[in-house]
Amino acid sequence: MSIVQQHTAASLSENWRTINIDALDPDSSTNFDTSTLHAAFPPVSHSEIVSLGQQIRQLLRGGDAESALRGALENAPYGGDDAVKETHLQTVTEVLQGIKASEMTPLLERIWGSEGGAEILDVLVKYLYKGMASSTSTSSSSGRPGARGSNLTPQSTGFSQMSGRPGAQNESSGAAMSVLLSWHEKVVEVAGLGCVGRCMTDWRKV
Amino acid sequence: MSTPEVHQLFHNPIADHSFSADKQTLAVARDTRVELYGRSDNGFKLKDELKGHDKTVTGVDVALQSGRIVTCSQDRNALVWEPSPTGYKPTLVLLRINRGASFVRWSPSETKFAVGSGARAIAICYFEEENDWWVSKHIKKPIRSTVTTLAWHPNSVLLAAGSTDAHARVFSSFIKGIDERPEAGVWGERLPFNTVCGEYLNNSAGWIHTVSFSPSGDALAFAAHDSSITVVYPNGADQPPRAVVSVSTQLLPFMSLIWNGESEIIAAGYDCEAFRFKGSEKGWQLTGSLESKGRPGLGDAREESAFNMFKQMDLKGKTTDDTQLKTVHQNTINTIRIYEGSGGAVRKFSTTGVDGKLVIWNA
To answer: Composition bias, kind Polar residues: at what positions (chain A) (predicted)?
Structure first.
């Protein structure tokens, strides 16, 4: 009896049929270093990306939305760490939110028609998807604290629909999402589905 | 432009197709078998079936001079089918690969063929007289992933391969006793077996779907999953290429491409239609589709009566029938091959795809 048990335990621990042999082969495609698929990125420090963000915001405030968007997308910090990338995403999202819906298509068409424009729009699509993926609200929390003053209104039933406002967070991220979605629609109109495919195949992540 | 010749062979995907030299026989990879169709007055009639594989057949190629057919399959085997008066006789080829075979092509000399596979290797197969069988030599390095596509250089020594590791590579497949020593050219001077003559990828590094040498063999084009085509003009051994031109398109990725002369490429893929690119070393451009849109007979020209419109709305909940694509092919085009041409210029080419159609186009 005990021998049988030992035997079973041994065969469980050495369950060689389930060993992933590909992981043990250094030449295997599972051990393929995907960073060899692109040139090495120059490192980007946090202070650099912050100052770049300030320059871009300045352009945006000055009314030059196209240069702001171009500047933000041409200088995507591929070589930065996650915090740097997050900071730049914030900048790009602000630029995107600062451009009126009616200006999107002419702006995108100008960029598409220019030298290297296809590449810039590919980067834009990457940021759109990153913006959609980031769970925390990337909108610069344009919360309206005063707007909810009506909370003070006594509710006779004691059932307050206002208190807590669980949807408040969702509302601002929803607004950010709708901006990203309308940009996405406009980019695909200009750059076609090719830019979505390129965003998926590209190893240079924003 | 005259209308293309459309043949609905069946309603299964076609992985690959190949015509015999006289264009009277068409070999089509369908599921686990290869079907041979003969030209009849107004179409193609099923003549013969080559049953030898027990998994999906991924590639088929008919040698133009000898009439031999080579097939490869996910069952890790390749078979050479020798024509004989009593039908085709299969011979198994020792590929020595441990993953499925993905692609097969005869070299222009027809003395050897190359098989791409998921085993990160290309098997170069040739016939060994003294043992009376087909043997293979492997090109392994530096391939890091499945080989999806292959293309031969006109000199039958150089071989281009595209892989899911996003690289298009040019190898030498020189085999002593089989090949004549090739002349030195833009791809290099000394070319022993497995020499890597070039290794290319583009910026967004999508996996490669198709590769092709230009008719002269001095340029290489490849299409990747990032909806781009890239053309490489090499500059001799160990030199960086003279030019690498990449065109990112607004379209879906291309699955197959052919050269029409040195300054035109025809590519087709997930958009279900063929597109034309024109250019040179200085730059390439997408010039448009080879299909004229809104051809008659696709239902959009018919004038609807009000009665009909309401009847359709009642029956189907919509007024127009939009279940058909506006293209001839109704699904992805997998293979595009030169059907008729001379000196590198293409007059007609054929396409097959997932919709089971064979279409012969005027270039």
So the answer is: 150-171
* Chain B closest-CA separation from residue A24 CA (Å): 15
How many angstroms separate the CA atoms of A86 and A136, rounded? 11
Pick the residue from chain A with its C-alpha nearest to B254: A194
Q: Which chain A residue has the Cα nearest residue B145?
A: A29
CB contact under 8 A, A38 and B145: no
Across the interface, whether the CB atoms of A32 and B224 are under 8 A apart is answered: no
| Domain carrying residue B46 | 5-291+304-362
- Whether B190 is in a domain gets the answer yes
| Nearest-neighbour CA in chain A from B228: distance (Å) | 8
Mapped onto helix, strand or coil, the DSSP state of residue B163 is strand
User: Amino acid letter at B361?
Assistant: W
Pick from A27, A191, A201: which is nearest to B205 by CB? A201
- Kindly indicate whether the ipTM for this predicted assembly is greater than 0.85, answering yes or no: no
What pLDDT tens digit does each residue of chain B (363 aa) get? 578 999 999 999 999 999 999 999 999 999 999 999 999 988 999 999 999 999 999 999 999 999 999 999 999 999 999 999 999 999 999 999 999 999 999 999 999 999 999 999 999 999 999 999 999 999 998 998 999 999 999 999 999 999 999 999 999 999 999 998 888 889 988 889 999 999 999 888 899 999 999 999 999 999 999 999 999 999 987 889 999 999 999 999 999 999 999 999 999 999 999 999 999 999 999 999 998 765 544 444 455 677 877 887 888 777 666 788 889 999 999 999 999 999 899 999 999 999 999 999 998
Residue B315 belongs to domain with CATH number? 2.130.10.10
* Of residues A25, A24, A203, A78, the one with CA closest to residue B165: A203
Say whether B252 and A197 touch across the interface (CB within 8 A). yes
DSSP-derived secondary structure letter, B49: E
Residue B107 included in any domain: yes
In chain B, which residue's Cα lies nearest the Cα of A189? B250
Q: In what order do the strands lie in the sheet with B25-30?
A: B17-19, B25-30, B33-40, B43-51
Name the residue of chain A whose CA is nearest to B251's CA: A194
Q: Quote the pTM value.
A: 0.85
Residues in CB range of B210: below 8 A, 6 or more apart: B149, B151, B162, B222, B223, B254, B255, B256, B257, B267
Q: Which of B164, B204, B205 sits opposite A122 (nearest CB)?
A: B204
- The full DSSP string for B191-246 is --TT-EEEEE--TT-PPEEEEEE-TTSS-EEEEETTTEEEEEE--STTS--SEEEE
Cα dist from A192 to A108, A130, A196, whole Å:
12, 19, 8
Q: Is residue B297 part of a domain?
A: no
Q: Please check whether residue B284 lies inside any domain of the structure.
A: yes
* Total Cβ atoms within 10 A of residue A194: 23
Kindly state the helix (H) or strand (E) to which residue A67 belongs, with its residue range: helix A65-74
